[in-house]
Design a protein that fits this description.
This protein is α/β, with parallel strands linked by helices. The protein has helices spanning 20-35, 56-66, 82-94, 105-111, 161-164, 179-189, 205-215, 250-260, 272-282; strands spanning 7-10, 39-44, 76-77, 98-101, 114-115, 118-119, 137-140, 146-151, 155-160, 168-171, 194-198, 221-225, 228-229, 293-294. L-glutamate binds at residues 9-13, 45, 179, 197.
Length: 298
């Protein structure tokens, strides 16, 4: 790859097929990278086999190709990068910033209060597991005090990790790597300079910045695009049964994604090539609404 000053990425999970929300995120991420003369990487976040849908990874790649996306380099797969995550965890454990935790979910729920993203871990195992018990997961010890994320679209976002989240999981009790560790290790190793993704992930960004800091790695810039919601106000996702996008009318769906992101192509842009050409020439992040946005009825 060339030494581009900007390197973005799109990192879908094969727990389902692409839907309108994931398409708009891919479009925004792709156009922001291209408009800044940068590279756009593709990474498959396949770290949770029990939740993965058979064939979804291949379907996602075929769909992106059919919509005209062109990524730089080979597609990365998290399932082939376990050694990188292990090395990062060992570094954090050796520096005393990560520790083993023996608590079960039931135990945490019985003694913890609710925070921004589930229960706030009360630090039960920070000084070691109780006698006779062994660690089941690994957690990062977080510092007290507020941290700020300067998001290019959402503005300043502040969060106190100790108060709002608590020491969070890096390696799960079931042996699977946690998203917060894997995504940081991947982005750092791949040289990602700017992350453009959905605003539903803004709440997890301070955790990732804490991992960057603990590993002594430079953090990327962030831009969180508006999430799309259904008629009930729920975020479009696999959990809310968002329908998969179809390659049969890719041009119409690309136009819809651009319009949701504040970019309305002229009526004579009808083909995929025309739409991409117009979008590349007219993309401005300042036109994108902060959201959330409701998907119009077809």
């Amino acid at each position: 790859m060339s030494n581009a000053t900007y390197r973005g990425r799109f990192a879908p999970s094969p727990t389902g097929l692409l839907h309108a929300g994931s398409l708009s995120t891919a479009v925004g991420s792709y156009l922001e990278a291209r408009s800044r003369g940068g590279e756009w990487l593709l990474r498959m976040e396949d770290l949770d086999p029990p939740r993965e849908v058979p064939g979804a990874a291949d379907d996602i790649l075929r769909t992106l190709e059919a919509f005209g996306f062109e990524w730089d380099g080979e597609v990365a797969h998290q399932s082939r990068r376990h050694g990188l995550y292990r090395a990062a965890l060992e570094q954090l454990a050796a520096s005393g910033q990560a520790y083993a935790c023996c608590c079960t979910r039931k135990e945490i729920a019985a003694h913890a209060r609710r925070g921004l993203d589930g229960y706030v871990y009360p630090g039960t195992c920070r000084r070691g597991c109780p006698d006779g018990r062994e660690g089941r997961a690994w957690r990062l010890a977080v510092a007290e005090g507020e941290a700020a994320v300067n998001d290019r679209l959402q503005g300043e976002y502040r969060q106190d990790l100790a108060r709002d989240i608590g020491d969070f999981v890096l390696l799960r009790a079931d042996g699977f790597w946690a998203y917060q560790l894997a995504v940081v290790v991947d982005d750092a190793e791949q040289g990602v300079t700017d992350i453009v993704r959905g605003a539903d992930l803004l709440v997890s960004t301070p955790r990732q910045l804490a991992v960057y800091d603990a590993l002594g790695l430079p953090a990327p810039g962030y831009c969180h695009l508006p999430v799309l919601t259904n008629a009930a106000g729920e975020k479009l996702s696999k959990q809310t049964l968002a329908p998969a996008i179809s390659t049969g009318d890719a041009a119409r769906q690309l136009r819809a994604a651009l319009e949701l992101l504040g970019h309305v192509p002229p009526a004579d842009c009808e083909s995929l090539d025309d739409l991409w050409r117009w979008a590349a020439a007219n993309w401005l992040l300042s036109r994108v609404p902060a959201g959330p946005l409701q998907l119009p009825h077809s």
